[in-house]
Amino acid sequence: MIENYLDLERGIMEHWNSKVVRKASDMRGFYLANDALEKMIEGGDPVIYEVYAVTHENEGELCYGVTVLHPGKVGDEFFMTKGHYHEKRDRGELYIGLRGRGLLLMQKDEEVQWYEMRRGTVIYVPPYWAHRSINTGTEDFVFLAIYPGDAGHDYGTIAEKGFAKIVVEKEGRVDIIKNPRY
Ligand code: PAN
Ligand code: ZN
After folding, report:
1. Global confidence as pTM
2. What's the pLDDT tens digit per position in 92-103?
3. Burial code of 50-61, b = ≥16 C-beta within 10 A, e = fewer?
4. Residue 83 CA: which ligand is closest?
5. What residue ranges define each of the domains in the chain, with the CATH number in brackets?
């Protein structure tokens, strides 16, 4: 498909061929507060985020997708995506903020960086950097991501170790602290 329509105000894309829904039960092991997560799952297993994407798999092609990351916390940690490296590590990505507010957390080896995102923010994720988004606001955090068709997603590395930093609410403020499990 060549042409699409993205409602920039609402962050809703008209056409997509891939929809991924991540519920609380899909996020086991990603948050420090396992008990809080299990409680949340028992209490109705809410959706944490959804991704609506147009995908192409070949080298030279592009994929693009809208992520809708809902607001909330598990323990002190804000709702976040799983986060990944690209399977082909030398593939970069572009993130564009559409709605709400959040952080993009990036990591390469032991180096960690994070960037605030809101409507209009453009972040270039260079090759070799793992990336995860975090909703630090009270409404949906929505962004568009554009990445190479053959990038692929390696979730295993992050699922095992996490990122070196986690994003928590402390005394009503957003705090980026060392991940004690890392
Ligand atoms: C994004 C992410 C999306 C969901 O489209 O895939 O925000 O995050 P996870 O894939 O980490 O669950 C992207 O970075 N694609 O490459
Ligand atoms: Zn990516």
Report:
1. 0.98
2. 999 999 999 999
3. bbbbbeeeeeee
4. 1
5. 6-178 (2.60.120.10)
